[in-house]
Amino acid sequence: MELEFSGAARQVTGSLTILRACGRTIMIDCGLQQGGDEAEWGQELPLKASEVDSVLLTHAHIDHSGRIPMLYKDGYEGLVHCTGATEDLCSIMLLDSAYIQENDAEWQTRKALRAGKDPVEPIYTVQDAQRALQGFESHEYNDKFELFPGIQARFVDAGHLLGSASIELSVTEGGRTRKLVFSGDIGNLDQPIINDPEYLKKADAVVMESTYGDRKHDGHMESTKQRADEIRKIVEDTFARGGNVIIPSFSVGRTQEILYIFRYLYYNENFSVPVFVDSPLSVKATGVFSRNIIGYFDEEAMKVFDEGQNPILFPNLITVTDVADSKALNDRRESSVIISSSGMCEAGRIRHHLKHNLWRRECSVVFTGYQAPGTLGNKIESGAQSVKIFGEDIAVRAQIFKLEGISGHADKDGLIRWLEAFDPKPAQVFVVHGEQETALKFTDTIRSLGYNADCPSPGDICQIAMN
Ligand SMILES: [Zn+2]
Ligand SMILES: [Zn+2]
Q1: Dist. CA 12 → ligand 2 center (Å)
Q2: Which tens digit of pLDDT belongs to each residue from 435-453?
Q3: Is residue 21 classed as helix, strand or coil in its secondary structure?
Q4: CA of 164 relative to ligand 1 center, distance in Å
């Protein structure tokens, strides 16, 4: 039995690991490379679609799922196994990704033709994504199923995104059984809506993420009330000045967490302000969250559900999908909260809202997630006096806030806690899904705790000990 490391080896994005066992080739995640990882590694798949027998998917984020349509385009005929919520989220996210691929290719083609070059083909189309989605097969958390003779699989809640999972495989070869665990992305504790990551107890080999393997999150918040207090204060102060609150947010996951907090404020504190979600993908994702409650939401959110309410919807929430309605938001006199994407302000409608509100002292911008270096969000967050939006200089006069303690990833302590739950220690640990420096540091950290740990590079093949 062997593992071949391809994507997210000494990188964060493009998760893709290959397991060869019992004469089968199984792909664990098939994600798109993003940002710098794409520039360095491209999107090519490391093997032919005809060589793959099955795909197991940890969760819907595009850096884990985004190359699945390529696999089907190349002739893959097998299944993609995942949880039901992951399948549901993929049904909107893969189509959205395909739409972006088609648009990018169209734009590049126009440029290429002007330069006398050939047209550019998208890496996949909406049609490819639709075909891929027909190959999805969903499973409930903790249900064991036989993937192939000798290989049993189980999805365990990873507490990172709705439907996210760690994958446990029991592989029997030559009369011996070995347990492998792929962590997927490991969630943070006390994240709104979803459960905390479930700790697994037994494994012979573990492949684990290390996104925040050298950092500790500060400002951890335990309760919804704490988070709600923080947001309420910002909104009250801003509205008193006559401004708007602009919240750049990732469409899937973070947006629904923010809505969960506004719902709490509405029903528990009688705090009623107009909240707009202006992003077609966010609106669709909110629908997916509303359809996948049982089996996925945590105890607190389930209590709301059991009382007959939807945990992320409330009367003064207004969803906007139409472009004309989105533009009309800029003419509103009344102060409002506007949640829009993309989360790092690199694309999407949020840029229009920033253009119209960033220069106004009475407004506020609230960041809800990590802002990668070089992004517009990062420039605003780190104190730029002025930024360029659609080629225009926009002064940064609004108040800038960053919500603490709502990361979707475990920090260094959380990762170690997840690993230490295995008893006895797994014989082999492979560290992936982290910037090279971070992944290496985390590997050293766990070695010093007595683990036999490796930090594979792309293309490395590692044997799983069977004796
Ligand atoms: Zn993720
Ligand atoms: Zn990830």
Answers
A1: 7
A2: 999 999 999 999 999 999 9
A3: strand
A4: 8
